Amino acid sequence: GQNIDQPTEMTATEGAIVQINCTYQTSGFNGLFWYQQHAGEAPTFLSYNVLDGLEEKGRFSSFLSRSKGYSYLLLKELQMKDSASYLCAVMDSNYQLIWGAGTKLIIKP
Amino acid sequence: NAGVTQTPKFRVLKTGQSMTLLCAQDMNHEYMYWYRQDPGMGLRLIHYSVGEGTTAKGEVPDGYNVSRLKKQNFLLGLESAAPSQTSVYFCASSTGTSGFSGANVLTFGAGSRLTVL
Predict the structure, then answer these.
(1) If you count residue pairs, one on A and one on B, with CB atoms under 8 Å apart, how many are there?
(2) Tell me, what's the pLDDT at A1?
(3) Within an 8 Å CB–CB cutoff, is residue A64 touching chain B?
(4) Percent helix / strand / coil, chain B, rounded to 5
(5) DSSP alpha helices (H): ranges in B1-117?
(6) Strand, coil or helix: what is B23?
(7) Does A51 touch chain B (CB under 8 A)?
(8) Which of B4, B42, B100 sits opposite A100 (nearest CB)?
């Protein structure tokens, strides 16, 4: 079966750095997405990786290793507004998105 | 630009009642999707559409029907609601799936919270 694993919850301090991991086992691979979802709101797109390596976008970076079935989202200079759930999703060989359950990130002052 | 608009935002149904969720997008996207989100689980695809007049089953289609009569609208129907259909429903749209130039990025609506008693 297809599976996406990510930690259920993480806690970090304002101003610090946090890394949210995602491991996957899917039928084929056509890219990995990270979305941010604030409580009670819609998911919004953060990043996309299809090749190995690091993609940087401001305070957020996303890394992919296809051989290891592994990705992480790195958030720097954490702000209180970064408190949200972070969803990892993989597009399989049929171009269907497989979603992880999400990681709830709690930022403490 | 409104993006993706879902109505209603909240609804309480009794078991056996029927209802329709409406999704409208103004981005001229070809692809539209209906997902459900339950605690502790990833988003699960119910049905999707790759263009006006087309629909296809997703991962959890049982108990739901959809229609895409106009490109901008995608309706999700529950013919006989069950407590297991209590969930938050998200509609999303995208330009398509051929490669990436923003084509695979989903734009979501704000969600519809449905409770079936």
Answers:
(1) 51
(2) 76
(3) no
(4) 5, 45, 50
(5) none
(6) strand
(7) no
(8) B42
End-to-end CA distance of chain A: 40
Per-residue burial over A69-98, b if 16 or more Cβ lie within 10 Å, else e, is: bebbbebeebeeebbbbbbbbbbbeeebbb
Position of tokens 């263009």? Answer: B51
Structure tokens at A42: 């819609």
Of residues A40 and B96, more confidently modeled: A40
Mean pLDDT of chain A: 95
Tell me the pLDDT tens digit for each residue of A20-65.
Answer: 999 999 999 989 999 999 999 999 999 999 999 999 999 999 999 9
Sequence-distant (6+) residues with CB within 8 A of B7 are B21, B22, B112
A32/B contact by beta carbon, under 8 A: no
Omega before B8 within 30 of 0, i.e. cis: yes
Structure token digits, residue A38:
């604030």
Predicted confidence band of residue B92 (pLDDT cuts 50, 70, 90): very high
- Position B62 scores a pLDDT of 97
Residue B102 has pLDDT above 90, yes or no: no
Calpha distance A65→A53 (Å, rounded): 7
Nearest of B19, B44, B32 to residue B109 by alpha carbon: B32
Minimal C-alpha gap between B93 and chain A (Å): 12
